[in-house]
Amino acid sequence: MKTNLRIAALSLGGALLTAAIAPQGAWAHNEKEHHKGGHKDQHVTVTVDGSGYHPAMVNVKGGQEVHLTFVSKGSSCANGVRIPTLHKSIDLKQGQKKEITFTPKKGQTIAFACQMNMFKGKVMAK
Ligand SMILES: [Cu+2]
Asked: Residue 88: inside a domain, yes or no?
């Protein structure tokens, strides 16, 4: 019994430590090797709802292809996503998802926002 408690405490400590160390924003979570050439893709999903974009800040690696998917979970003006740097705009309906693909340069920040520039987010390539 005592040992179990100790393990639980250690796990909790580890989780807290991870949370404290994690930098702001979310990293592209799913780096897969799709192609036989060893070409790496980064997959990021941003949820769109009445309070904006989640996560609003995404970290990716520069020089590698990014697949950015917007998934709409609500009816909101955030469903109209403008990405000026990429000359792209996406219009979502509730429940819809759309993907864009691009390869950012190292150090590049790609901002996106709703049409009114009220809800904002960005992809930062490091
Ligand atoms: Cu708006």
From this structure: yes
